[in-house]
Amino acid sequence: MIRWGIVGLGNMANQFANAIKEVDNAKLVAISSYNNAKLDLFASKYNIDKKLKFSDYVSLAKCNEIDAIYISTLNNTHADVISLFAKNKKNILCEKPFCINLEEGKKIKKLVEDNNIKFFEAIAYLSHPQTNEILDLIQNNEIGEINNIKSEFGFKIKRIKPMSRFFNKELGGGAILDIGCYPLSFLSLLNKNEKLIRFDKSSIKNYNTNVDIAASANLTLNDKIKCEIKVSFEENLDNYTTIYGSSGYLIVKQPWLPSKKTFLEIYKDERYFKKFIISELTIYAKQIKHVSNEFLGKSNPKIKLFNITKSLDNMINLNTWINRTN
Fold this sequence. Notes:
Layout: E1 2-7, H1 11-19, E2 26-32, H2 36-45, E3 53-54, H3 57-61, E4 68-71, H4 78-87, E5 91-95, H5 102-114, E6 119-122, H6 129-139, E7 146-154, H7 175-179, H8 181-189, E8 197-206, E9 212-221, E10 225-232, E11 241-245, E12 248-252, E13 261-268, E14 271-278, H9 283-295, E15 306-307, H10 308-323
Parallel strand pairs: 1-2, 1-4, 2-3, 4-5, 5-6, 7-10
Antiparallel strand pairs: 6-15, 7-11, 8-9, 9-10, 11-12, 12-13, 13-14
Helix pairs in contact: 1-9, 4-5, 5-10, 8-10
C-alpha cells in the first residue's frame, strides 16, 4: 500500500483525491497548502487527520507517514517542489508539464537520479487500456504500415485572464507547454528513437502576454511517418488522433481523457468496425494504480508511463517547438 500526500490543492488535487478511492494499492493520508482555507476544506472533505495537514511544503516532505507525493501546484513551481521532495527521498507523480523549460528539466533528471527515487509525469491517458489497444492494433498490422498521423488538442478559453496560468509566461503559460505534451507524447509511443522526431514546419500564434495561444507543427517520425499536430486555447478542436496506414486508418475520438467505456474506429479495405475498450477504473484512478504499483516494485512493461527520461525527451521536443520561428 502506497501512502500518498498531495501538495497544492486545486482542481487536479480534487480529481486525485476522488480517484484514489477506487484503488486498492494506495491511500491519501496527508496534504499541504499555503492557503489555510483550502487546507481546512480539503482536509474536511477527504477526512485527512489534522496532524497530517501541513501549511508548508517542507513539513510534508519530511513526513515519515507518506511514501509518495502528488504535485499539482502551478507549472512554474514544479522544479522547486520536485527538488524538495526528491531530496527527502519521496517518490513523485507530478502534473504536466513537469517543468517549464529544458534547463529545469535537465536539473530535475539529475536530482531524481542522484536521490535514487522514482518519478513519473502525470500524462494520464498513458495508463488507460485504450493506449495499449492502439499500439497492439498497429503492431498487429491492422491498418498496414503507418505513413501519417494527425493529432490535436484544443479548447476555447472564453474569458481570457492575462495573469492566469494559461496566459502568464512567468507561470509557465502557453498552449504548447500546457497541452502540447499530449500529441507529442503520443508520437513518442511510435518513435523508435527520440532523435528521429524532426520538425519540418511550425506555426505559432502569440497572445499579447507573449505566450502562444495556438500552434501547429508538421513533423517526420522515424524518417518516414508524416505527422501533423495542433494545439489551441482559442478554438474547440475535434481533439481526435487519426492514424493512417497503407491499408486503412484508425480514429481515436477520446485520445486524451478516455472514459471507462470508449472505442476506436477502424476503416480497412472498405470495411468499418469499432473496437470497444472497457476500463474497470476511471482514467485518474488507473494512473494512480499503475504508478503506485511502480513504487511498490510491481512494474508492468506494457504500461507506457512517462518516467524522468521520457519526460525530458518530451520536453526537448516541446522546447524545439516553442523556439521554432517557421
